[in-house]
Structures are given as C-alpha cells and as structure tokens.
Amino acid sequence: MSSVDDMLKWQTAITKDVFVKEETIDKAFTNYTLNNGDKINYGYGWSINEINAVSTIEHGGAIPGYLSMGVFVPSKNVYVILFSNCGCQSPTNTALEIAALAIDQPKINNENSVKLSKKQLSKWVGTYEFDNDVLRYITLKDNQLYSQREGSSQDPFKIHPSSPNSFSFEEGFISYDFSIKDGKKVTLFKNRINKRKGIFTDKKAPKEKGEFTVSVDVLKTYEGVFEIQPGFDLTISSKENQLFAQATGQQKIELFAESKTKFFLKVVKASVNFHKNDKGQVIALTLNQGGRAMKAKKK
Questions:
Q1: Distance separating alpha carbons of residues 208 and 103, to the nearest angstrom
Q2: Beta strands 224-229 and 232-239, pairing class
Q3: Which entry of 3, 37, 115, 191 is 20 to 30 Å from 66 by CA?
Q4: Between residues 209 and 91, which one has the greater pLDDT?
Q5: β-sheet bridge partners, residue 236
Q6: pLDDT > 70: what percent of the chain?
Q7: What are the distances in angstroms from CA 147 to CA 126, 267, 268, 269?
Q8: Within 13 Å and on the Cβ side, how many CA atoms surround 111?
Q9: What's the order of all strands across the beta sheet hosting 47-51?
Q10: Considering the entire predicted model, what is its pTM?
C-alpha cells in the first residue's frame, strides 16, 4: 500500500543508485539465459520486456483489493506507475498504453492503421505452423484480416496493418511480421518480448460451424433443470429465439443451434445434445466438454 508519488521516489532512488551500487542494479536489470539458450525474461526481481522493440523494466503488484503496475523505459527515462483500488480491474494494459504513448510507440488499432488493398491482404492468408507445434489461421473476410489459434474457443481476432507486411491485434501489443523466404511465406508472431517463427503450411483452417434455426416453440421444450451430479445442475432457459445454459454458480451462456437437438457454445469449446423419449419429451442432455461426455437427467 503506497502512493504513485512515493513509487516515483522509489524508482528515482533505484535509477540513481541511492540504495545499492550501479553494478548491482545492472545485474538486477539483466535478462538471464538458461542452459538451453532460452531467455527467462526476468532479472533480480524485475521483469524484462519491451514495447514495440523498445526495452522495458517492469513489475506488477497485488494484495487483496489493490493492484499495481510499473513500467520503466530506460532508454527514454520514462516511468509509468498505475494503481487500481479494486482487485477486479488490472492496470497492466493501461500502464503499457500510457508508456507506449509517452515514447511515441502507440499500439496499432483500426484508427491509426494503414489502408491496404484486398490483393495485399490476401497475400498473407493461410495456415502457419510454429516451432512450438501451434497452428495459427489467417483469414480474410470483408477486407479484414483475422487471426485464430488452433483449438481456441474464442472468435477470430481482427489484425490491423501498420505496413504491407506487419499487422497488430486490437488489444495489447501482439503482432505479426510477414515475409517470403525461399519462395515460402513465413511470419514472426510477437507477443512483446516473446517471439515465435511460423511457416506457411497446406493445413486448412476448420470451417466455422453453421448456425441452425430452431423455432421458439421447440426451444421452449428444452427448458428445465438437468442434474450433472449432486449439487451441480445445468439450467436451460429460452428467450424468444435464443437458448441459454447456466451451470450452478456460473453465469448464463448462450447456446447456438447446430441441429434441432445439438447446440454449441462460442465462449468455450463445448456442446450440448438433448435427448427425448418415445413421446418426444426432453428427458436428458449430454454436455460435451474437455473430452468428457457428461449426461444429465432432467429433474
């Protein structure tokens, strides 16, 4: 528990060698290397990172009810410290954005991106395989490029061009640098200081699940409480042409129809199948998630 004014005094004392010798601080601000050659991106008590290739020294803090984030840019002598008097609101991204503005390296978004033709955008469409066995799909829709990681349950992310070869995500400081080497498309995926190389592959992105229209009357037949296990239920409700699922102690999530009896979720990789008896009455459902098929009878 402190104040931003006191944190500035602390930072000034650190950089002016008030507490310890200069060579000690140099060791604390060094990005050390493991025996396998990987950088640990951590010194003696400080994180080593970067904002758009400009080196930073950072650390956050947390105690119940309070969060903080400090970002120091040595080459520009810029220090940003941000406090949040709520454990529910992380100050990290805002602190990074302020630091980026202060050093004239603002993050790229739709407002300050460059305009490219459809031909220029199409050049980088495809699947890229990375050295950590991750696939990332670059797709084009309505003159907008999107990125999605294999297996992700989230919708594809928009990526905005800062040049014909470089694209940035809307949130944070994550980007792609595309190029062609030896006749093959390659990309460098940069999550600040963490970087991975991806090579174009013929593997295809999975097709999006088509949404199926189910009548309001049919949706109402699925309403009810289904017991997955004692003390843990899945409550199904409907509102007009929408169907929702709510697990005990969790928020309500919308279900999307894949067929008349099968629905999928967009926020997580999961699906729900409804089961009927000979009279056409819904008597149970199966929740498919994480490789498990959990059958729940209707109460």
A1: 41
A2: antiparallel
A3: 191
A4: 91
A5: 224, 245
A6: 97
A7: 10, 16, 17, 17
A8: 2
A9: 47-51, 54-63, 66-73, 78-84
A10: 0.65
